[in-house]
Amino acid sequence: MDQNYSTSFTVDQSPEEVFAAINNARGWWSEDLEGRTDELGEFKHHYRDIHRCTIEITELIPGKKVVWHVTDNYFNFVTDKSEWKDTDIVFEIAKKGDQTEVRFTHVGLVPTYECYSVCSDSWGTYINGSLRSLITEGKGHPNQSERIVNKHGLENS
Description:
The chain is an alpha+beta fold and 157 residues long. The chain contains 4 helices and 7 strands; from the N terminus they run βααββββββαα.
């Protein structure tokens, strides 16, 4: 059985609009990104001393697919510091009738991971909430980490 974290939603916008929104990671994930998120190459994410990672964008197929490869990662709240490292974050875009389906899969983010509950909850919030509203309303809700971290009580650990 496929254990990777995955979630999907459909919107009325075109695959091209969805593709553009995904590549605007500052608009839905984090404003604290260094580097370009709309071309092949590397960018970095950090949230306080809690989470930082280096991501390489390895695939950009307009209107169809975006793949991010995590080359380096650090969480201050997990024992196994290799979690997320060498995993792939995949966005697949497909036409479903008059709508566009967005399927998000974090390949390698599995339930045995210590960070799984926090990370899956976090991705759920960012993908189904923030990314979706960036696509449908033109405005996302980046930097939700604060709320997610507090909900999981990680700030004091």
